[in-house]
Amino acid sequence: MEKTFKTLDEQVSILIKKGLIISDINYTKDVLLRENYFFLMGYRHLFFKSEKDREFIPGTTFDELYSVFNFDRRIRNILFKNILIVENNAKSIFSYQLSKNYGYREKDYINPRNFTKEASRRRQVNDLLKKMQRQIRINGGQHSATMHYLSNYGYLPLWIAVKVLSFGIVSELFTILKQEDQQAIAQIYGIPIDDLIQYFPILANYRNLCAHEDILFDHKSQRIIQDTKYHNYLNIPKMDGEYIYGKDDLFALIIILKRILRDENFHQLIQEISYEMDILSGKLKTITIDKVMDMMGFPSNYKNILRTDL
What gap in Å lies between CA 273 and CA 260, rounded to an integer? Predict the structure, then answer.
């Protein structure tokens, strides 16, 4: 069925017909205009009677729907600033390791000989290095730090070049490093190589999702993280032998950040998320915060992950 343009009045009318209570028509129209009906409706399924009966639970208000939208935005902003910390740390650690071992000029560090010798990865290595060169060439001329180095020294050391590389490129870079370089980096994090190979693309995916204001709370990543001691400690329930939370959901991201961030950063992150949970809980009438947490993959005792002695 073809989707056609709907005026603000028509959008409001559709919502009312589906059982949503709207007390202030003009305010609702302004929100729909500014936030986009399509994106706001990404949260409607929380308030449906059922997926089959796609009408709102009796008593559901537009303010409730909008409160979840704003909650997701605030959680997204909290996670985004912490993922940026991880991104900056990774770029600094990677550039230090590669510069120390292979040199600080482009011809030194962007050299296929510095990376895995596996024949099956040769094409990936060459493709990724070309992407790095392209990003440095295109983005380098638009950043003050890179322009300063290029104009004053005529070359771009990796610890400056990483500033203009995407987190996606950097996360893939880890997969093509020699094992000894991977091991050195893994020791800094105190996390096994295989886990970091799994974590970095998930972090890069969430970074882009946050940057583009996509729906976050019920996002499922394509990769499933390995079981950790946190799953066991929190007594997360299992279904068919698999943990139901913290595998490919938002709580999986929380577990990754627990392992990668400094304790003080992670403690602040959980405090901020807990605060937003409390605020949203007070605004919900037809559903409970438990339903939202379930969609996020958060166990009810999620704050226990703050235990620093785990």
Answer: 18
